[in-house]
Amino acid sequence: MPGFFMFVQPQYLQFDAPLALQSGASIRAYTLAYETYGQLNATKSNAVLICHALNASHHVAGVYAGQAKSEGWWHTMIGPGKPVDTDTYFVIGVNNLGSCFGSTGPMHQNPDTSEVYGASFPVVTVEDWVNAQARLMDALGIQTLAAVMGGSLGGMQALSWTLQYPSRVRHAVVVASAPNLTAENIAFNEVARRAIATDPDFHGGNFYQHGTVPKRGLRIARMVGHITYLSDDVMNEKFGRELREGVDLKYSTQEVEFQIESYLRHQGDKFAEYFDANTYLLITRALDYFDPARAFGGDLSKALARATAKFLLVSFSTDWRFAPARSHEIAKALLDNHRELSYAEINAPHGHDAFLLEDARYMGVVRSYFESKVSAEMATA
Amino acid sequence: MPGFFMFVQPQYLQFDAPLALQSGASIRAYTLAYETYGQLNATKSNAVLICHALNASHHVAGVYAGQAKSEGWWHTMIGPGKPVDTDTYFVIGVNNLGSCFGSTGPMHQNPDTSEVYGASFPVVTVEDWVNAQARLMDALGIQTLAAVMGGSLGGMQALSWTLQYPSRVRHAVVVASAPNLTAENIAFNEVARRAIATDPDFHGGNFYQHGTVPKRGLRIARMVGHITYLSDDVMNEKFGRELREGVDLKYSTQEVEFQIESYLRHQGDKFAEYFDANTYLLITRALDYFDPARAFGGDLSKALARATAKFLLVSFSTDWRFAPARSHEIAKALLDNHRELSYAEINAPHGHDAFLLEDARYMGVVRSYFESKVSAEMATA
């Protein structure tokens, strides 16, 4: 629908009761920022929860009135007439605990001490986020989700929903995700964390009180991350060995010489302006820790025996961060448990980032899954 | 020969005449550190030059008397009875200009100003290094090399020798190398450089005068580098998701939790103790700049038309830094010019690092190339 905009606004809900966390700590009097799109139907059977990845938020779809370029991060996927159609579904986006876009995070006050959390913000896991999201669903009066959906780290949350609340999820849509991180994935996260934590402006995580921001570390973290989000192919196609200016080399080690350097520096600079350093540590750690098979001696099939939801898994051919083989692991474990499963491997050049981009085949797969499978369950709910 | 050690010692040669550099600058009164192994024969036809990669040196083979663990970086490949047999060949290792192991570099005094070079050390390229190496060969009385050999960035120097001094090289052994860097390769270099250059202890490259060392940046640079040297497979096999201590998670964002984190931090710490930050910038830039096809509109076949040497190319199946496909590009360009070429693709799990490791098939390929091809040319020289 060209010219049509869905105007949305964030909502905030405070939860006073303590939430027990996986670490043994707990958090109380916390706020979750969320948005909803579409209408909850009378039987409350059309709710779809969207879980976000590292640097995204509750602002999944639509636009903010009066704000240019304020499209939600998955607006190509979700909205009126989109693959996840908000004319049919009541879609909820929620900002995770510890993030920096409105939900309670390290930059907020600890109600027990009246001091800013900073480094003392409790370590949160995928399982903790899912528990917090379940409480939000309770508050919204939603017992059962038609679907829970996410890409990358968001896909891990969708998967974890099917294990923590099997009876509350009919469908899980897990895109460009993995059942845990590899050593290489952890290694890249650790480089990013060390860049932040060793920035003198980080002050052990209590930089708010010092009036500083560890921008150097955040820039490096984002640059490293960006490399892993793109495929080698798409980087060569977009940037190759093109020089930033003209055709003559400058012969400089510190100035920008190649286009790819300029692009990465720009991404790093932008990110350092808006993203919280403690949040970066927390979210990459949640990625590291996620490993549902761990409690089952590494046996993912045993771990997924609890899941009763039906699954759509999507992977992308050039994603080397969470390669198709990682989705195959989830698929195999589900099949070992005789679960119903659809799987699409999209031939796309964009690497891990493909899950955020508008690819006709990818959009088509999700659209047809919601039209045929998710809506069918909804009708019988 | 178990129990046999080849004792060696570094030598130093000063070059007073200015060396014109690709950037337009020049450098004078510089020193090259080098080592030699074996004996130059009467016809001076048995010289093999070894070119080093990013963090290696002239100390290629043998050990230093009285120093434990002082084996040269390619001692598995080079020495008496080794694949490059110093009972037959006169092997030369040379530390490149701008490095930090004895040749003139940014930590030394500029004879024109009597000040430490620091950030003002001229940018050096692969081509400049080859010119400096050629002068060293002149000084050693060696007109023609039986072979020039290197891995990774060292392989680029070997390739460049065949283009800059075609008549002075009979064989080029180019291992785990590439005809230029991809955008992704440059991107990883740029992350490392930014980590160093934005470390407050770097002082724009003039940290020597400030009595500081940008160790934070060097650590990050090394951690990033290390990830790209290893394959995903070997990281999973060596470290996987193993915890550093015990079986219980600590739930900490700054402490070490996984073995892979501990390994990377250790590598970073070690490196920051001995490697020069300006050298890191210079050498990664030399990698970025290397691109013999550039002057030929990107046509590598045209660029390699000058080469008359015979080639051995070796690549490793799991090397994702300089993948086998990059060696295929060199092979194709040589074949387009009807050059004599041997190529081995070694099925090894270790990623880029494989070129430094002792793999029986790899060692066998190099040994047989030297025994059959290199020695045959030598006999007729």
Descriptive notes:
The structure is a homodimer of 381-residue chains. In chain A, 35% of the residues lie in helices and 15% in strands. Chain A is built from eleven helices and 14 strands. In chain A, strands 1-4-8-5-11-12-13-14 form an eight-stranded mixed β-sheet, sandwiched between helices. A two-stranded antiparallel sheet of chain A has the order 2-3. In chain A, a hairpin with a 5-residue loop joins strand 2 (19-20) and strand 3 (26-27). In chain A, helix 1 (126-139) packs across helix 2 (153-164) and helix 5 crosses helix 7 (259-274). The longest helix of chain A is centred in the C-terminal third of the chain and has 20 residues, at 360-379. The mean pLDDT of chain A is 96. At the A-B interface, helix 3, helix 5, helix 6, helix 7 and helix 8 of A face helix 3, helix 5, helix 6, helix 7 and helix 8 of B.
